[in-house]
Amino acid sequence: MLPTSAHKSLIAWSLLLSLTGCSVSGGGGVVRPPAPEQLSALPHPIDPARNSIISIPVHIDLSTFLDAVKDENLIPKKFDHWGSYIKTSKGAAYKYYAERDDFAIDRSGAHQSMSTDQGTPLRNWWKDIDLPGSSLSISAALRYKIGTDPHMVPCGDGNEWPRRATLNGSIAIGITPNYGLSASVNNVTVNTLDACKLHIADSDISQEVTNRLTDVVRGGLNNAVARINATTVKSHVEEAWNALRNPIQLESNTWLLLNIDKMKRSGFSEDGTVVDDTLQITANPVIVFGAEPPATSPALPQLDSQPASNEFHVVADARIEHDTLSKTLANRLKGERFNHGGDNIRITNATVSGIGGNQLVIRIDFTGDALGHVYFVGKPEINALTQTVHISGIRYDSATENLLRKNANWLYRSEFREFIASKAFLAVTPAIDRLRNLLMTGLNRPVNPAISMHGTVASVQGIGVFADVNALYIRAMSDGTLSLKLADKR
Q1: d(Cα 143, Cα 264) in Å, to the nearest integer?
Q2: Alpha carbon distance 256, 286 (integer Å)
Q3: pLDDT per position as a tens digit, 63-117
Q4: Can you name the residues that pair with 392 across neighbouring β-strands?
Q5: Contact 199, 193 (CB under 8 A)
Q6: What does each C-alpha distance from 137 to 132, 166, 272, 276 come to in angstroms?
Q7: Average pLDDT in the 250-265 region?
Q8: With b meaning 16 or more CB within 10 Å and e meaning fewer, what string describes 133-154?
Q9: In whole angstroms, what is the distance from residue 185 CA to residue 252 CA?
Q10: pLDDT tens-digit readout, 377-429
Q11: Which of 4, 103, 165, 457 has the fewest CB atoms below 10 angstroms from its CB?
């Protein structure tokens, strides 16, 4: 039977009511508000890049310096004043003889904290220029004897060497602002292992012998450090600096921009005849996505003598598409029922989108005693403890609120908003884990054939969040270390 004109009118009227969102029954209603209007775009917050350090080892070969201090023409191995007496300023006569072994780098540094031996120690501290930098210690075994007139003291009869001592030298080494080496004799000491037991009247003779020995050794060391002062590390450092000025590609359309700006120094360590100095590049690293960014760092600056820490941080904004957020929220909410009094609805879908202004929109679709969808608006905020993003300040948008009051007032007066707010959180661990993996790979790789990076990633934490119309961005910061390994060009 074909519908009558009255039936046609009733169908048309019901359709019109459904399209305009008006009530179709006593307890329920159709709620289909328009999507919220776009807000004015806000710029993304400036990257809070943290000061970071990239360590660069610089190898300094001191073999030529050690060859010089072993040279008998520069520092004699025999100090022979046994053939004739020498008089002190007080008129006391004495003579001495000493022999030394080759100088070697002293790893113990024991001469810097020597204890007083019984008798009169042969010791004299002498300080020259105290350079900012590090101190290199060298030492040589010494055998000696002292004789006085008119009596001989028990310090050897010329055929054996019962009195033992060490010659110790301390060399201050620094790097000039222009990356040249600068060395100076810091002090020279004689430390006795077997002290001569002189008479009280001859007590100043020990100091006389000490002064003569240290003066000769110091003069030779002053000539030897000229070998160090002729050395520069600028070309080595400049190669590393220039390699780090440019963006480093981590993967397609992903770049590590180090933003290096200063060069500092840490300090020396030694291994055999090689001294390692650690220079520190200060940087403000970020990961950027998209086309290759331009190099922004300056040319190699002068060296700053103030040391820095060893921490290395990278700040990056991980992008999470709205579709990904929507799937996560829909999986959590689809099929959920919400009851209020005798009315209830069942959620059929949930989506997340952006409207600008650092605001997110959640759309909830439902059926039941009310039919249609509603829009919630809120601001994303990150919980640093749980590493989740919550939609804070969640509220109905104005069009949704007006229709709910008219067509489904029971739903408007219910705690449906609070129910959705409790479910409106987004886990961002996958995005942070991806950044961690990206960094682990990106920080342990060659930069060029002569330079490679070696990094650690101790942790990666979300520190901020921002939404625009295209995606949600999780700002994360990693903590770790980064050092460079340079090809050995010695």
Answers
A1: 43
A2: 6
A3: 888 888 888 999 999 999 888 888 887 777 888 889 999 998 876 543 333 233 3
A4: 379
A5: no
A6: 16, 12, 12, 14
A7: 89
A8: bbebbbbbebbbbbbbeeeebe
A9: 54
A10: 999 999 888 888 999 999 999 999 999 999 999 999 999 999 999 999 887 88
A11: 4
Classify strands 134-149 and 163-175 as parallel, antiparallel or unpaired. Answer: antiparallel
What percentage of the chain's residues is helix, strand, coil (to nearest 5)?
Answer: 25, 45, 35
Share of the chain above pLDDT 70, in %: 80
Which DSSP helix (H) or strand (E) runs through 234?
A: helix 234-245
* Distance set, CA 189 to CA 116, 139, 213 (Å): 13, 9, 9
274-283 vs 52-61, strand pairing mode: antiparallel
Cα 122 to Cα 192, 219, 413, 429: the distances in Å are: 6, 18, 96, 68
pLDDT band at 153 (very low <50, low <70, confident <90, very high): low
Distance CA 330, CA 347 (A): 9
Hey, which CATH number is domain 32-51+308-490, 3.30.530, 1.10.12, 3.15.10, 3.40.50? 3.15.10
Tell me the H-state helices in 343-490: 398-407, 409-413, 416-423, 429-442
Phi, psi of 334, deg, nearest 5:
-60, 130
Q: Where are the domains of the chain?
A: 32-51+308-490, 60-229
Spatial neighbors of 180 by CB under 8 A, at least 6 apart, are 229, 231, 232, 233, 234
Provide the β-strand partners of residue 489: none
Q: Which amino acid is at 237?
A: V
For the chain, what's the residue count? 490
172 Cβ contact list (under 8 Å, min separation 6) = 129, 130, 131, 133, 134, 135, 136, 183, 184, 185, 186
